[in-house]
Structures are given as structure tokens and as C-alpha cells.
Design a protein that fits this description.
5-stranded antiparallel β-sheet; binds adenosine monophosphate; Rossmann fold; alpha/beta; GMP Synthetase, Chain A, domain 3; 9-stranded mixed β-sheet
């Protein structure tokens, strides 16, 4: 029976002898062998009663079997619901309570802690361990893979991905077969993916970047993936000579730049480096080009929308920007007065086949963020420059309002980052008795530099209007980041929130 996503991503693996995945130990898993794994898992799950419309929640290590489980869910028409491996049992309880999955798959090492959670939420529990063994694999090994592929059209649900939820509760973004396939098709064309490509895959697969942008695209292209269980700079450098494309979050690139082994010779053969999920500093872009000769292609997307914009494959990849809307994706920037003029900052909204259908069981949240005519209010502030390149200025919730004036943290961060000795910075708003909020800077020094916060503030005094200048600054070794490389400003606000309290 037709199944939009399965037919495009997994069915074409039939008969493919060449590897779909190459593991760190050099072992290859052929396309056909992988498809059989998908089908055996699907049959095993069907035998447990899993069927179209069910949810399968998964908190496991990144293994070939975990990727196969995504395929098995798609084959059955069930919604795949991957969870960050860092979530605690209390957090998992929230997700299972909200999504009411029929099945929860977790690492055997955490079974004792998670079994009561699954039981309380009425989910059956199976294990899948970091070495690929476990209850799921045992069941799959006993069957032949004879399973009816569920009939799934474009609007059918393929996955629920929870947003990281740094403010309030995480929300489950409902992604349909069409959302995922349309985006993979567009990216395939825009980034020129071909069957001969070899994607170095070191991203987690519980997030849209590693699961959809990376894996869906490689599957759709008939390409191969070098499958790393996580990001390890040394391992990536070992395998880059065998790859043609790498996708990463900005921290991949900054960490690789710290390695003397990263040279033009090592990566001269590479076709493409892509970055996203968090802003890539223009300095990183420039340092990467100086060292390797490659200009990183930066793109912008989010859990709810898949990818929205990309710098051009051919043409200028402009540092500090996320390029242009992808074909089929409409993007507008709204201010209180209507559509923003070039260089004017406003709220980014997007519409297109990539945009999700709403938040799972949260109709009010859906109404707040997804307009009836299909425009999604991203929560990101941005602008277009005179040439139409989109710039992300930051999350609207990170906007600082001080004495009635709006301050965009990014504008202040860019000035701070240019001061000698500053590696990077994060600007936040903290409560202030006179101004409501005060601009506050957290500075990270370049290696080996003893940075003086007051001197940095003195150095920028002439460059920014007074209300934009931080009222105080601290120096720290590192900014707190989540697994996707995003600076966790909520943690900084918690930490420095009482700075000006009497
Ligand atoms: P997530 O849903 O976890 O993928 O987070 C999506 C958010 O990450 C977006 O709304 C942006 O705030 C941010 N983001 C993603 N890509 C970029 C980028 N290239 N530059 C700046 N921010 C980005």
C-alpha cells in the first residue's frame, strides 16, 4: 500500500548491496540489510499490536538499530517520538504522559529507572542498548520481516518531536509525511545531493537536524552515511577523508578548528560543509575558510518547520546570514507597522509544505503560534539585508527591554565579539530596579587572555547607544550550551538575575 515517506526513503533500499551506513569500526551495513532490519522490527512491533496512529516513544543511543526503528515506525504508520538521551525519568514521565505512546523503547541500562514510568503511563517497555542488543532486537531476530506497510498519505503523522522548551513545557510538534518528504526533496536539490555522496553523520538523531535534515536527505539521495555515535573531534578528523559532506552545529566547527590536524589537505576533497541549529559566528565562518578553503553553508530551521532558509550552493554564502527562503517556503518579517523594510528587524513567519500541523494535544498553543492561513510565528527575530539575505537576530523572548527601549542582544554581542581578547559573548536582560531590565553581558575570553570586563565595556562605549551598552559584565570560561550547540540564555538569566537586586 502507498506510504509516502516509506516509499521514498526506505523501500528504495531493496536490493542495495552497497553500504547505507559505515560504522566507526569500519563495518558496513548494506542498504538491503538495513531495510530487512527495518521490516523485521516492524513485524515484531506489529505482533505486539502496534498499528497506524500509535505513538512510539524512544530514548536510546544512536545506533543503526535506532535509525531502523524510525523506519519501522514509518512502515507501520505510527508516529516516531524520539527523546533526548539526557532527559531524566521525571522528564520522560512528562513526555509519556503528554503523548501516551503505546510503546516506549529505552536503553537497558536505564530500564530499572524507567520501567515504573512507562508502567504508570500505560506504555509497553522494550529495550534497545547502545550496542544494538536488547528486547527489541531479540524480537526482531525471531521474525522474517513480513509486514504490511501501512497506507500513509501526505497528511498522516510521521513523527512528534518535542521542542526543547527552555521556557515553559516542551511542546510536541506534529510532523506529517508531507512535511518531512517535501523538505528532504527541496534540500536534495538545493544542496545537490547525489547517490555517490558520503555524509559524515555525528549529530544526535533525537533532533530534527540529525534525524530529518541529515538522515532523511541521505536516504532520499541513496547516499551513504558514516555513522558516529556522537561528536568526537578526533574521530571526525579520522573519517573526513572518506566523506564528501558534513553537517554540523556551530560547535562542531569551533572544536574542529582547535585541532591542528584540520588542514586544507585533509578536507580538500570535501564537497560541502553545512551548519545550522544555532548561529555560526562570522569569525568561525572566516576562520574555517582561511584554514580549509571551504565556505560553510549556513541554513536556518526549527523543529516545527524543518528547514526554512539556506545560503546558496552556488553564489555567495554570506557569513552571519542564513541565506534565502527555500523553494516553496514563504518567509515574511513583520513589525507592528506591517512587513519590515530591508534592515528593519521584525518577527519571522514562515508558511509552506514544511510547516507542521500543530502541537500534540495543545490546541491553544497551536492557535497562538500557527495562524489559520498557515503562517507560523517562529519566535525568531530577524531582518533581510539589502540583497535579501535573511539574518537571525535572536529569539523574541531574548529581546531586552530596558527603560522602554528594545535592545537586540545579537547587535551588542557582535560589537563585544570584536573587542580584542573576546572569543564570544552572550547578552541577556536581567531585572533592574530603575530600567525594568538591564543589558548584561557574559564574556568568554580567547585562550590565554586575562579579560577585564570593565575594560571591554569601556572599549565599546563609543560604538553603541548608551541604552544598548551593558550595565555590567562578567567573564566566564564557557557559555552553557545544549547538545545542539545553542547557548542556554535561560540558565544565564537564572544565574545573574539578581545582579542588580538591592
Ligand atoms: P530547534 O527547534 O531545536 O531546531 O531550534 C530552532 C531554533 O534554533 C530556531 O528557531 C532559531 O532560533 C535557532 N536556529 C536554527 N538555525 C539557526 C541559524 N542558522 N542561526 C541562528 N539561529 C538558528
Amino acid at each position: 500500500m502507498p506510504n509516502l515517506l516509506f516509499d521514498a526513503l526506505f523501500a528504495p533500499l531493496a536490493g542495495r548491496e552497497t553500504p547505507l551506513l559505515t560504522l566507526r569500526d569500519g563495518r558496513g551495513i548494506g542498504g538491503d540489510a538495513f531495510l530487512r532490519l527495518v521490516l523485521r522490527q516492524a513485524e515484531a512491533l506489529a505482533a505486539l499490536g502496534l498499528t497506524k496512529g500509535d505513538r512510539i516513544a524512544v530514548q536510546v543511543a544512536k545506533t543503526p538499530e535506532a535509525l531502523a526503528l524510525y523506519g519501522a515506525a514509518v512502515a507501520l504508520g505510527a508516529a516516531f517520538l524520539p527523546l533526548n538521551t539526557a532527559y531524566t525519568p521525571a522528564e520522560v514521565d512528562y513526555f509519556l504522559g503528554n503523548a501516551s505512546p503505546r510503546l516506549f523503547v529505552c536503553d537497558g541500562a536505564r530500564e530499572a529507572a524507567l520501567a515504573p514510568v512507562a508502567a504508570a503511563r500505560g506504555a509497553r517497555l522494550l529495550t534497545l542498548n547502545a550496542d544494538g542488543t536488547g528486547g527489541l532486537s531479540d524480537l526482531a531476530a525471531r521474525v522474517a520481516g513480513q509486514v504490511a506497510i501501512a497506507d500513509c498519505a501526505g497528511d498522516d503523522l510521521a513523527a512528534i518531536l518535542y521542542t526543547s522548551g527552555t521556557t515553559g513545557r516542551s511542546k510536541g510538534a506534529m510532523l506529517s509525511h508531507r512535511n518531512l518528504l517535501s523538505n528532504a526533496e527541496v534540500l536534495l536539490r538545493e544542496w545537490r545531493f547525489v547517490p555517490g555522496d558520503v555524509l559524515l553523520h555525528a549529530l544526535p538523531i533525537f533532533h530534527t537536524h540529525g534525524l530529518f535534515v541529515a538522515s532523511n536527505l541521505a536516504l532520499l539521495a541513496g547516499a551513504r552515511m558514516i555513522w558516529h555515535p556522537g561528536f568526537d573531534a578526533g574521530a571526525v578528523l579520522d573519517d573526513l577523508p572518506k566523506a564528501s559532506v558534513m553537517m554540523g552545529v556551530p560547535t562542531f566547527y569551533t572544536r574542529l578548528l582547535e585541532e591542528p590536524r584540520l588542514t586544507r589537505d585533509l578536507v580538500g576533497h570535501m564537497r560541502l560543509f553545512i551548519s545550522g541549529s544555532a548561529p555560526l559566528l562570522a569569525e568561525t565562518h572566516e576562520a574555517w575558510e582561511a584554514r580549509t578553503g571551504h565556505r560553510i553553508l549556513e541554513r536556518y530551521g526549527m523543529t516545527e518547520t524543518n528547514m526554512n532558509t539556506s545560503n546558496p550552493y552556488e553564489g555567495e554564502r554570506r557569513a552571519g546570514t542564513v541565506g534565502f527562503p527555500l523553494p516553496g517556503v514563504e518567509l515574511r518579517i513583520l513589525t507592528e507597522g506591517g512587513e519590515a523594510a530591508p534592515e528593519e528587524v521584525g518577527m519571522i513567519e514562515v508558511r509552506g509544505p514544511n510547516v507542521f500541523g500543530g502541537y500534540w494535544q495543545m490546541p491553544e498553543k497551536t492557535r497562538e503560534e500557527l495562524r489559520e492561513d498557515g503562517w507560523f510565528i517562529t519566535g525568531d527575530l530577524g531582518k533581510r539585508d539589502a540583497d535579501g539575505y535573511v539574518h537571525i537576530v535572536g529569539r523574541a523572548k531574548d529581546l531586552v527591554i530596558t527603560g522602554g527601549y528594545n535592545v537586540y542582544p545579537k547587535e551588542v554581542e557582535l560589537v563585544l565579539d570584536d573587542v580584542a581578547g573576546v572569543a564570544e559573548s552572550a547578552v541577556i536582560g536581567v531585572p533592574h530596579p530603575d530600567f525594568g531590565e538591564a543589558v548584561f553581558a557574559v564574556l568568554v575570553p580567547q585562550k590565554g587572555v586575562a579579560l577585564d570586563a570593565a575594560a571591554v565595556l569601556g572599549a565599546i562605549a563609543g560604538q553603541l547607544a548608551r541604552f544598548k551598552q551593558p550595565k555590567a559584565a562578567v567573564v566566564v570560561d564557557n557559555l552553557p550550551r545544549n547538545t545542539m550547540g545553542k547557548v542556554q540564555k535561560n540558565l544565564l538569566r537564572d544565574q545573574y538575575g539578581r545582579w542588580f537586586a538591592g
